[in-house]
TrEMBL record:
Family: Belongs to the MLP family.
Underlying gene: LOC105127961
Protein name, as recorded: Kirola-like
GO biological process, one term: defense response
Signal peptide: none
Pfam families linked: Bet_v_1 (PF00407)
Organism name: Populus euphratica (Euphrates poplar)
Bet v I/Major latex protein domain location: 2-149
Amino acid sequence: MAQIGKEEVKKPIQCSEVKFYDVYRNEAYLLPTISPCNVKKIKLGDGTSSWESKVGSRKLVHFDEAGLEDFKDEVVEIHPKAKKITYKVLEGNMMLFYHSFQATLEVTEGTAKWTVEFKKKNHSCPDPDYYLHRLDSVNKDVNAYLLPIN
């Protein structure tokens, strides 16, 4: 029987919430530069012609050089005033373990929170701790990148 789950990681950020959200919303192409240990490559997918995230836009993300952690996602919801964006994973090795996998970034005053909702294929499939750790690590790198230089 498939298991449905929801987990989150919420951490403080010191940079501008607007700029932080904008990296994910409009400048995701910067992620391999900002967080090279976590994001090896990112490119537009399936006819997406702009880096501005809109509902239906897709990206191909490569977490590692070997291609074992590649995935394709699609933006399914955007709430600019709330600085919230939701992605649904369409393809990738993680889908060996999950029937569905969705990640939502919400940036509020002084915090960035990722919430993942997933449906495991069976009880022996792993929890998404690895992916939450990656998302948290990318957030730390984005925060550091956006901090003013003293």
